[in-house]
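Tokens help. Consider this.
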Amino acid sequence: MNPATRILIDIGGQDSKCIGLSPEGAVVNFAMNDKCAAGTGRFLEAMARALGVDIDDLGSLDEGARGTHAISSMCTVFAESEVVSLIADGVPVNEIVLGLHRAIATRTVSLLKRTIPDHNGQAVAMSGGVARNRGVVRAIAETLGHPVYVPEMPDTVGALGAALIARERCLKG
């Protein structure tokens, strides 16, 4: 979808992955988050519930925030408790959401750096349902210091890849 891509960040409902790609598109490095769903779609669903907002609105709810409130825990249970406390303290929703987006970005870029230490300057694309959240994409791009390409339908990229592999195997076989 973007031939220049050398790093793919894929964040779905249950896991997140960082994948290093060769110029031909072959996987050269791969890492997946640990066994918890921190920083994934499930995490965002829980945070949207705690905030009393629709998950589809999270991507734009950080607009206008100054970034004065960081979320320190990525454990869903602890982060949810932190969000509830911030709400009780009267912290504006946009500040909380920006803190959540930045926490996900920090965790994701940390995984990327462990997987692909020499990532600087490489084109990055993002797939998975979380790529539909503009705030998360924006936070990852800011943390990386360069743009992140997102295809038109990022949540279908994995299925499209599987279909292309199946087609290739059928044509060979």
Summary: Residues 11 and 130 are 6 Å apart (CA to CA). The chain has a mean pLDDT of 92. The chain has six helices and five strands. The helical segments are 41-51, 58-61, 76-88, 93-115, 134-144, 157-172.
